[in-house]
Amino acid sequence: MNLRFYYLVNVILISRLVFLVRDRPLGRRGLSLIVLLQLAGLLVFHIGPALGVLAVLLLLLNILLYYLERKTTQLNALRLSSLLIQVVVCSIFFSPRINLGLNRGLLPFVQRCGQYSLFSACVSEIDWLQCTTILMGFLLVGNEANLLVRHLFQVLDRAPKKEDTARAVVIVDRREYNAGRVIGILERMLIYLFILTNQFTTIGFILAAKSFARFYELEQREFAEYVLIGTLLSALLAVSVAWMVKLLLA
């Protein structure tokens, strides 16, 4: 496993947290934040032609995403596709052919800073590969799984709805939809954590508590379908990511 590659994937995933509560096309401020975070994350690598090409590619991909978001109604599918493309592009620069290395002046700088901190000894003992891999899983089940679940809700037309009496139309219940987003994120993160720690029986209590809290609302068929689909998708994605991380750590 390549620690540098996982580090850069995490930088990209962290920058994409701007999508977490944004169901509309990305604005210029959001684009600027993504670009700045990704370019800042590249500073740990060796400055040279390869790094320059990678920086330009990431910049162009983000700008392309910014413009394409204004031409599609499938925002979440587009955002997931952009992540896949960015990860594939990054993997090329850590292949044996290019093998982008770390900035040679970074390690001595960190070691000098560590001389003035009591935490330097603790930091040096951390298994950074393990931490980076686990963090990648948390970011995947938190934000990226949320994008996938919302995309499937849109495709299946199973988002919670309410009647707009003023216009006599049925619209998406944004309040319930946003509440479901938060619940789903917490649910996936807990399931992910419990699988990593082999606490499989605890997962049942999470799902049971969620069903109990919405017991009376589940009498409505459409809402029950929304909750059931969301719960099963969230659980499936959390389990899949957790097992993938366990395989990477093995």
Mean pLDDT: 85
Note the run of SSEs as H and E.
Answer: HHHHHHHEEHHH
Tally of helical segments? 10
What does the radius of gyration come to?
Answer: 21 Å
Largest sheet: 2 strands, antiparallel
Oligomerization state: single chain
Kindly report how far apart the N and C termini lie.
11 Å
Tally of DSSP β-strands: 2
Helix residue percentage: 55-70%
Q: Looking at the structure, what is the overall shape? A: globular
SSE class: mainly alpha
The stretches of 5 or more residues where confidence is low (pLDDT under 50) are none
Strand line-up across the major sheet = 1-2
Q: Any idea how many domains?
A: 2
Strand content: under 5%
Notes on the protein architecture:
With 250 residues, this protein is mainly alpha-helical. The protein has two domains: 3-121, no CATH class; 132-249, no CATH class. Helix content is 70%, strand content 3%. The protein has ten helices and two strands, in the order αααααααββααα. It has a two-stranded antiparallel ribbon. A hairpin with a 4-residue loop joins strand 1 and strand 2 (169-172). The longest helix has 29 residues, at 128-156.
Write the layout of secondary structure elements.
Blueprint (H helix, E strand, L loop, with lengths): L2 H13 L12 H14 L7 H20 L6 H19 L12 H9 L5 H5 L3 H29 L4 E4 L4 E4 L1 H23 L4 H13 L7 H29 L1
Antiparallel strand pairs: 1-2
Key phrases:
250 residues; mainly alpha; 70% helix
Summed up:
Helix content is 70%, strand content 3%.
